[in-house]
Fold this sequence. Notes:
rod-shaped, mainly alpha, 4 helices
Amino acid sequence: MNKKLSCPVCDRQEIVESICPNCETDLSPLRMLEELPEVDKTNSLESVIIPVLPDLEPTIFENREEHRESESSSISNQQVLLFIVSFFIFFVLSNIFK
C-alpha cells in the first residue's frame, strides 16, 4: 500500500505516485524510506561501550622471555589504565541512559 507523501520541492500534499504531478520531482527515494519497517532503538550500554573500548591485545615485547615472569606476576599499567577508563565510561553512560 502506497503512503501519501508531500513533495519537498513544491510542498504539494497527499501525492500517491512516485513523481510529483506539480513539479515532476522524483519521490521514489522518499517513498522507499517511508516504506521501510521501523527498527527498535536500543539504548543498551553494550551498543555504546563495545566500539569505544580499546583493543585488549597485550603489548608485545621485543624480548618476550625476559619479560615473561614479570608479566605473569603483576598487573601492567596498561591493564590498570584500561580498567579505570572502562569503569569510567560505564559509569558515565549508565547515568546517561537512565
